[in-house]
Amino acid sequence: MEPENIKPNADESKSEDRKTGDAEVVAPATAVKTTSADAVEGKSAEAVTVQSRVARPDMSKRKFAQVSRRELLKVAPALLLGAFAIPRFQEGLLKKGLGFNDWAAARLFRRGHLAPTFSDADVTPFEKFPINGYDVDDPGVIFENWSLTVSGAVQKPGDYRLPQIQALPRVRQNTRHVCVEGWDVIGRFGGARLSDFLSMIGADTSAQFLTLGCADDYYESLDMATALHPQTLLCYEMYDRPLTRQHGAPLRLNIPTKIGYKQAKYLTDLKVTNLLQKVGYWEDQGYSEFYGL
Question: In degrees rounded to 5, what are phi and psi of residue 54?
Fold first, then answer.
């Protein structure tokens, strides 16, 4: 605001408008100026007030873009959460999230990297090992008639009896069994390496998958890398004794690098293939396909 009764001459007012660059600060708040003509004539000096302004720099396009990106990153979680709140987006987002998780986990998986093993003293007592079934605890397998039917990309398809599998080198391991329901126990498992069995039947290990059928109509699949892992067993023993019916007799999978629902019980069929028509009982209902530990 200008002081009362003090006005600059027209010529002098022009000098007030000093042009500055964007980042320049104009002269101090007020300045007093005396004209040379008035000084010669002995007149009293006329005070001229120049009101100053601070020139604010304009935001550059680059800086604006940086600010915009920062603000977008801040609100991105809220936007994603909002998208999850819209029912028609939920299923698609969940599938994409699971798909990315499986893709990343499969690429981190290493056949030579072993799951932890434990001493006998760490093993959960057999009677405290939970019995967890998909449908029934005992589908009524008649052991004398049982066989594992092999098909697909193999040189020796057919039906394999339990003694043929038991003739392969036996492996016993104390490993952790992890259930998707949230519990885990350390058990003692014994059986033949699945990789040894695949070698015996002449499986094409360049194929991508194994599919597995079970006596209780459960079904599952494995990627070939997991099937060839040295700790993946065709398991016919627990705690140095034959499998019980409740735990999947006469043959089940033991895969300490995978979640529990991948470790199918009551095996009846094994196929080597490059095509999955069905992934697994739980996977086809939205669970993770790879689920490595």
Answer: -100, 120
Judge whether 215 and 224 are in contact, CB under 8 Å. no
| Strands 267-273 and 148-152, bridge-based pairing | parallel
DSSP the chain: -PPTT----HHHHHTT-----TTPBPSPS------HHHHHTTPPPPP------B-PPPPPHHHHHHHHHHHHHHHHHHHHHHHHTSHHHHHHHHHHHHHHHHHHHHHH--TTPPPPB--GGGSPPGGGSPP--SS-S-----GGG--EEEEESBSS-EEE-HHHHHTSPEEEEEEEEE-TTS-EEEEEEEEEEHHHHHHHTTB-TTS-EEEEEETTS-EEEEEHHHHTSTT-EEEEEETTEEPPGGGTTT-EEE-TTB-GGGS-SSEEEEEEES--S---TTGGGT--SS-B-
Report residue 237 as tokens: 């023993």
pLDDT confidence bin for 293, thresholds 50/70/90: confident
- CA 118/CA 138 separation, integer angstroms: 29
Give domain limits for the chain: 1-58, 61-107, 109-285
pTM (2 decimals)? 0.67
Residue 258, pLDDT > 50, answer: yes
State the pLDDT at residue 41: 44
End-to-end CA distance of the chain: 73
Q: How far apart are CA 200 and CA 46, in angstroms?
A: 112
Segment 101-160, tens digit of pLDDT: 565 656 565 567 899 999 999 999 999 999 987 777 899 999 999 999 999 999 999 999
Count other Cβ atoms within 10 Å, centred on residue 183.
11
**Superfamily the domain 109-285 falls into:** Oxidoreductase, molybdopterin-binding domain (3.90.420.10)
